[in-house]
Amino acid sequence: MKTVTRLSTAWTAAALLALAAAGPAQAATSGPPIRIGSTLSLTGPLSGTAIIHKIVGEIYVDQLNKKDGLLGRPVEWVVKDDQSKPDLARTLYEQLITVDKVDLVIGPYATPNIVSAMGVAQRYNKILVHHTMGIPSLAKYDMQFPAWSVGPNPETTVPNTVLDALATLPKPPKTVAIVTSKFPSVFLMSKGAQEVVKKRGLSEVLFLEWEFGNRDYGAIANRVKDAKPDFVWVGAIGLEGNQLLDAMKKIDYTPPLHFYMYPAPGPLAKLPEAKNALAASIFEQHPPFTNNPVAAEFVKLYNDRAAKAGLADNAVETQAAASFSTWQVLEAAIKATNGLNDKAMSDWLKKNQVDTIQGKLRFDKTNNYGDDLMRVKQIQNGQWVTVWPKEWAAPGAKILGQ
Amino acid sequence: MSLPSATLLAQSILSGVFIGALYGLLGLGLSLSWGMLRQINLAHFALAFLGAYLTHQLTAVAHWDPLLTLLVIVPAFFALGVLMQATFARFAITPFNSLLVTFGLTVIIESAIQAIWTADPRMLDSAYGHSKFKVGALYVPLPELLTLVFAIALALLTWATLRYTDLGKAMRAAAEDAKAAAAFGVDVRRLALLLSGASAAFAGVAGLCLALSFTLAPSQIYAWIGVVFAAVMIGGLGNPLGPLVAGVVIGVSESVTMAITAPAWAPLVSFSLLIAVLLARAEKI
Q1: Nearest Cβ partner of A219 from B118, B123, B263?
Q2: Is A238 in Cβ contact with B15 (below 8 Å)?
Q3: Among residues A248, A198, A237, which one has the least CA distance to residue A214?
Q4: Least CB-CB distance to A48: which of B118, B123, B266?
Q5: pLDDT digits (tens, 9 = 90+) for A336-360
Q6: What is the pLDDT of residues B144-157, one digit of tens each?
Q7: Smallest CA–CA separation between A293 and chain B, in Å?
Q8: Alpha-carbon distance A375 to A158, whole Å?
Q9: Which residues of chain A lie closer than 8 angstroms to B259, CB-CB?
């Protein structure tokens, strides 16, 4: 399956004629398109989230082509379906570089597929900017650049940020239960949280792990209730958090304070039991994030396209923002080096910062990671709002306890 | 490792009985088709999920009561089971080939579910979903209780039918020796169609129970295969009560394991039990 987003020369000419007749002149693109290749999990278990990246990529390429394109040339995005399979992603990246002969590649969705793509990019010395890689220690390739700014040690920094936020409550938690899926990127964070809890002098009353794909959350809910923690760290991905809350509801239990690592944001916000639930995020569609005009325009376009695509949740949050930032990083490197030389772009990115909708990104720490820009958000009145740190909090919002 | 409280242990045992009932319900049709039709019907799980998605559709979109969906799903799935058996008979599918063919069918049904309902996980929000009552310190959720009632009722009904009715006796005779049964006037072909239809209808009922209690995703079809196979093999092929009893034993063992130690250890329980039972019954394999 192949999807191509492109403004052809003919359309460009037609559009130019129309614009010339309509009023002030706008920028034009000419020459052969710059072809950027990637895979996305358009089918398979990851497709529910990968569709977000597809919509964002289409928006970005459309916007580029409505302006000057890149280097004055139109941009063509060649997307192939990796069917949520890392091995297929590897083959398709090989194909994109050797058969389709794309000029540049950009990352797929989800850590295992990104790792696959990274191996191919390394073999052909291609720069790889990628969206949401959850295990920074696996990103060993010198010319890979993460656009999801979680820093080189999110397993330490993210739990600390969460506990910093909770420490501002009138009654901060003293006892913690950590329950977690064994999904690799989630498990990494939960094990990190366990260490951070210990270092901060809090008491760990429960640590439980379950296999990704677990069916029955009843026993886990029972164990949490029995442990009576002040705060529950839920290392959940996707709907696991909803399933656990559902099981808790069946035994009339509500966690006093609860955090979810990588939840399905829309479905969790809709759940009444998820009231005051916390999660980490790099972007939410409210000020001060949307004070950035680029972000505000993107939010508008994304909300519209996501609604048309029938997505259950049309809001821009971490996935969409990281995806948009990926394109911003690539565009910045191309423009700064005025070319498509992978090495030159890579060298430039290591020495410079890039303005993105999640903030300024830099790539000068371990494995080209920069700062941890993860913030803490909370479900308040059925909506996600950023509550920590204060400078990124939604207007008037502050973290709420039980 | 700290000892769980009595309430936690009792609640875990109860949860185990409920999840075990679902293993038994899913295993009932599988056991019948395997033991009496000599077909290892992997598509049984895909049918159950198809039933769950149809329940979800009729409940969430058409606003039916979940239990009323059985009025449509059970006859439709019975017809589907009859059609499957007719096709298998037409092409004389062997037991081993039935494994391959039904695996293919599973993939096709999974793809169809994904094409229609997407890969996004779905949870049914029904009046039953959050209904529960308390017995002492224990919580009894209504959807799980319904699953237990369906599992016991269908297992007993099937057992009684096979044991006490002429139809059941004919089915058992056909399973034992089809040619001899035919010589005595048993319409083996028609009975096979009936049995396959009943198995598929049971999958439809299991689908309702899945939809009431669990998150649905196409890929979840495969998550149930291992443990239900274990329940069927421990319970005995073609034995309607066996999968239910074995399922409850497995479910309770898993839940107690989860109450005492890490939940990640729970899957080891069902397969350890399976290996132990297979070793104990080595002479019957």
Answers
A1: B263
A2: no
A3: A237
A4: B118
A5: 999 999 999 999 999 999 999 999 9
A6: 999 999 999 999 99
A7: 32
A8: 8
A9: 219, 222-223
CA trace torsion A375, A376, A381, A382 (10° rounding): 80
The CATH number of domain A2-150+287-371 is 3.40.50.300: no
Q: Which residues of chain A make contact with B116, given a CB cutoff of 8 A?
A: none
Contact A335, A70 (CB under 8 A): yes
**Residue B20, amino acid:** G
Chain-chain contact of A48 with B11 (C-beta, under 8 angstroms)? no
- How far is the alpha carbon of A215 from chain B, nearest alpha carbon, in Å? 7
In Å, how far are A267, B24, B169 from A263, measured between CA atoms? 9, 32, 53
Helix (H, G, I), strand (E, B) or coil at A40: strand
Q: With 70 as the cut, is the pLDDT of residue A328 above it?
A: yes
In terms of CA atoms, which chain B residue is nearest residue A239?
Answer: B121
The pLDDT of residue B278 is 82
Written as six digits, the tokens of B85 are: 């058996």
Helices (H) and strands (E) in chain A, counts: 12, 15
Distances (CA, A) of B203 to A219, B15, B67, B150, B196: 26, 22, 15, 12, 11
User: Residue A4's pLDDT is what?
Assistant: 45
CB contact under 8 A, A43 and B215: no
Q: Do A219 and B12 touch (CB under 8 A)?
A: yes
Q: What is the pLDDT of residues A31-73, one digit of tens each?
A: 999 999 999 998 776 777 888 999 999 999 999 999 989 999 9
Domain A155-281+376-392 has CATH 3.40.50.2300: yes
Rounded Cα distance, A43 and A79, in Å: 13
| Residues whose CB is less than 8 angstroms from the CB of residue A248 and which lie 6 or more positions away in sequence, other chains included | A221, A224, A225, A254, A255, A273
Taking one residue from A and the other from B, the number of pairs with CB-CB distance under 8 angstroms is: 92
Tens of pLDDT, residues B188-216: 999 999 999 999 999 999 999 999 998 88
Query: How confident is the model over B77-112, as pLDDT tens digits?
Result: 999 999 999 999 999 888 889 999 999 999 999 989
Are the C-beta atoms of A218 and A250 separated by less than 8 Å? yes
Q: CB B259 to CB A222 under 8 A?
A: yes
Q: Which residues of B7-21 are buried (b: 16+ CB within 10 A; e: fewer)?
A: ebbbbbbbbbbbbbb
A228 touches chain B (CB under 8 A): no
Q: What does the pLDDT read at residue A156?
A: 97
| Reported confidence tier of residue A15, pLDDT bands at 50, 70, 90 | very low
Locate CATH 3.40.50.2300 in chain A.
2-150+287-371, 155-281+376-392
**Largest Cα–Cα distance of chain B, in whole Å?**
64
